[in-house]
Every structure is written in structure tokens, then in C-alpha cells.
Amino acid sequence: MADDAIVVEDLRVTRGGREVLPGLSMTVPRGQVVGLLGPSGGGKSTLMRSVVGVQVVAGGTVTVLGEPAGSPALRSRVGYLTQAASVYADLSVKDNVRYFARVLGRDDAAADRAIESVDLTDHADARVENLSGGQLSRAGLACTLVGDPEVLVLDEPTVGLDPVLRRDLWEIFRGLAAEGRTLLVSSHVMDEAVRCDRLVLLRAGRVLSDSPLPELLSRTGTEDADSAFLALVDEDASHDGGAA
Amino acid sequence: MNPRITLATAARILRQLRGDHRTVALMLVVPCVLLGLLAWVYSDSPVVFDQIGPALLGVFPLVVMFIVTSIATLRERTTGTLERLLTTPLGKGDLILGYALAFGVMAVVQAVVASAFAVWVCGLDVAGPLWLLVVIAVVDAVLGTALGLLASGFARTEFQAVQFMPAFILPQFLLCGLLMPRDRMPGVLEAVSDVLPLSYAVDAMKDVSAQADPLGDVLPSLGVMVLWVAVALLLGSLTLPRRTP
After folding, report:
1. Sheet holding A206-211: strands in order across?
2. What percentage of chain A carries pLDDT values higher than 90?
3. Which candidate in B20, B77, B81 is best for mutational testing of the A interface (most A CBs within 10 A)?
4. Is A73 in CB contact (< 8 Å) with chain B?
5. Which one of B5, B11, B243 has the shortest CB-CB distance to A56?
6. What ipTM was reported for this prediction?
């Protein structure tokens, strides 16, 4: 258990009268990049919100670094990036990152390092509203990185970005994991699966698969994550056949 | 709560305002234009202006800060910055006090400019000390900020947030004694106006303009306003739960 950064047990979440997570269990090992993949509406964001402690949960437990999710001790150890970049559009990149640095108890030098790590030093004085989509995502990421978190929960950080930017971001993520940090990264782009140490396939609030990619491919007899996912969906549907 | 985070938040909000020159200009110029217009309307009866002018000085900070705060905090909710902040060590009190501090600073500037314009340009006759006008305006502005924070908790869109201004503020404006002295209103309305905070802001402003030594009458009014600020901030903090459905 001590090797797991995130432990989710029988998590149940209801939103708007609908059961989004009907009893989900999974673990994220320390120091790994775990990809949370699946179609939108499958409960990825809800699971991530539960991990950072901003989601009202109906039951089950979420434990992060040995503490209940959302407990005050975790707030400077867990970094969260929402699907929107969640930065102040009317401030410069530098002012945004410096503000979150102060909130997280870091100094301006840490802010400058975070900006450099996402390669935005040249745009540090630009107002966020004038940035391109890729720069905006990276500005949001810098505000998360500046707290030097041990666990990063990133909700679709690469959505809508071109292949080059996506590759660059994944290089950043791999670098963070190499430093011993744990990353839970969601995506609905299956080809990002190859970048992850472990894949969790989520559909309709249930874990269809939780394994490294090669294991998943050999088990489903497929060539890529996309086909593996479809094979699992079909398999799942045939199991449900009697009940449905 | 943590003073470092509170101050950083206030500084961040002021930095956002500083980047928005038009909003700052509107906050400072509109009260002056309205006061000037009113002075012009009553140019043949300056006594009336001396009665209504100070009351308006009590209305502006509340209205302006209410609108600015309710939109700004709604933006925090809709752009995701609030959700991000609530996963950090920032306490709800840090955010609320940060807003109150930042807009309190803006209120000082607004009150100084509007009061100076009213007295030296429009010829408003103020018997009491001018600094007291500014103090009342600041408490009044913080009150507007507190009510705006509370109202934004009930708004899902910016359209709704803007509509809360007439809903929260206009009834107070009608009952604050500006249109009709409060003691000459129907009993029920007078009782209601005795509870509403804007009535006390307007009373305090009137006291300063009419009396050479108004502190004895102004302090109880300020006390009621501070109480309202506390209640609104407390209720406002309840609209900022860390966990949402």
C-alpha cells in the first residue's frame, strides 16, 4: 500500500441524480504516469475531482499519499489542472504563476523556474488572453507545477493541441515522473497511451482495464490502444448481454 | 487563513483591475458625472443638493462594488480558477478578505475623488469632517463587496449576476430615505428600511454633511454596516464549498 500514491476504493459519485461512478476502485503506484483513458462522459473528470477533493462523493474512500483526499495536509502536495486552463486571462503569465506561487508558499524564483519548465519564458510578460491555445495550456500547467507537487492530477492537458505540442508536454510529464512524482493524466486520445506506464480504461464509470499497455495489447490480441479499447467494450457488452 | 495568501490575493485582484483601465476610469468618473448632473439639476435650489448629494455618495460605492465583485467572483467560479484555488492551501477567508481588501483600496480612491468633486466642483456644503465621508464610503464599499460575493453564489451566468443588482440594491435605494424621509414612509416600509444596510450608509453621510461634530450619530450607523458586512461575508463563505456536486 505504501507504494501507491492514490488508492480509490468503491468510490460512488452521483451527479444530477445520475450515478456517474457506481463503485470504482483503482490504484496509482508512486512515481508512475498513469493514463486515464476513455470516452468523454465516462467519469474521468469526476474521478479526478474526487482525487483532489473538490467532488461531493456519495460513498467509498479516496486516499492520496496516505491521507484522505482533500485533507488540508495534501493541498500543497497535490497539484491539479482542470480541463480549462484555470488561469486569470487578464493577467500576464508571470503574474499568474507568481500568484499561485505565493498561495502555495513558493517564491518568485520558483515561479520563473515553472515558467521555464513549460518553455514560456519568452512569453512571461504576455497577457494570458493573448496566448495561443497551446501556450494557454502550458501557462495553466506552470501554475500547477510551481507548487512542486508530489502528485499531479491533470485533466486532459493536451486536448486540442497539435502533435508537436503534445509530444513536448508528454516529455515534461515523463521528466516529472523521472523525478519521482506521480501523475494521473486523463485523455480521450488513445495514441497517448504509449506514453503512460499504466493505462486505466474507463467507460460509464467502470474500470474496463488497468494494466501496462503491452499487457493490455497481448490480452486483447490487438495492435493499438484504440482497438484494445473497442475489444474491451465488446467483451463488456457480451458479459452484460443477459442483464441488459 | 494565512496573511501571506490573503495579501497575495488582494494584490492579484488589484493587478487585474490595474490592467483594465476602462473599468477603473468608469469607477472613478461615473460617480463624479452623476454628482455633477445632480448639482446641475438642482442649480436653482442648492439646499436640495446639499441634502441629496451626500446620500448619493453613500449609494455609489455600494452599487459599484456590488457589481464588480459579483461579476469578478462569478468569473472565478466559471473559469475554474476558484476550483484550482480550493485545491490549494488558500482558505475561503483568504479569498473573501482578499476581495474585501482590494475593493476597499479602490473604494478609498473612489471616495476621495467623488467627495473632492462634490465639495470643490459641485459646491456641496459639508459641515462635518471630510475624512469621515471617506471612512463611511470605504465601509460602504466593503459592504457592497460582501453583498456582491453573497449574490454571486446564487448566479449561474453573468446575465443573472447583473440582474441581482436591481434585485439586491434597488429596493434598498427606494427605501434608504433618499426619495422620501424614512420616518414619513408607511410603517411597514420604515421598519424594513430600519434593517437594510444602505439606509445606514445614507444616514451616516447625511449626518456628516449636516453636523459639525457628527461622530456620535455616525458610529452607530457604521456599527450596523459592519454587522451587515460580517453577516454577508459569513453567508458568502457558505456559497464557496470546497466540494461541489
Report:
1. A78-81, A151-154, A182-187, A33-37, A198-203, A206-211
2. 64
3. B81
4. no
5. B243
6. 0.88
Burial bucket for residue A134 (CB in 10 Å: 0-12, 13-18, 19+): middle
Could you report the per-residue pLDDT of A191-220, keeping only the tens digit for each?
788 889 999 999 889 998 899 989 989 998
Domain boundaries, chain A: 1-77+149-210, 89-147
pLDDT at residue A240, rounded to an integer: 63
Identify residues of B whose CB sits under 8 angstroms from chain A CBs.
4-5, 8-9, 11-12, 15-16, 19-20, 79-81, 83-90, 242-245
Q: Is the pLDDT of residue B193 over 50?
A: yes
Q: Which residue has the cell 455616525?
A: B218
- Residues sharing a CB contact under 8 Å with residue B241, sequence separation 6 or more, in sequence order: none
Of the candidates B243, B229, B245, B244, the one whose C-alpha atom is nearest the C-alpha of residue B96 is B229
pLDDT of residue A192: 83
pLDDT tens per residue across span A131-167: 988 889 899 999 999 999 999 999 998 887 888 888 8
**Angle separating helix axes A93-103 and A108-117, nearest 10 degrees:** 120
Do A70 and B90 make contact, defined as CB atoms within 8 angstroms?
no
Range A1-77+149-210 has CATH code 3.50.50.60: no
The count of CB pairs under 8 A between chains A and B is 84
B77-92 per-position pLDDT tens digit: 889 899 999 999 999 8
* pLDDT at residue number A78: 95
Nearest chain B alpha carbon to A58: B245
CB-based contacts of B161-164 (< 8 A; 24+ apart in sequence): B161/B70, B161/B71, B161/B74, B162/B67, B162/B71, B164/B70
Residue A178 pLDDT > 70? yes
**pTM for the predicted model, two decimal places:** 0.89
Round to whole Å and give the CA distance between B135 and B139: 6
Distance from CA of B86 to the nearest CA of A (A): 8
pLDDT tens, residue by residue, A105-141:
999 999 999 999 888 999 999 999 999 888 898 999 9
What are the boundaries of each domain within chain B?
3-238
Strands A78-81 and A33-37: what pairing? Answer: unpaired
| Ranges assigned E (strand) in chain A | 4-15, 18-29, 33-37, 59-64, 67-68, 78-81, 151-154, 182-187, 198-203, 206-211
pLDDT at A241: 52
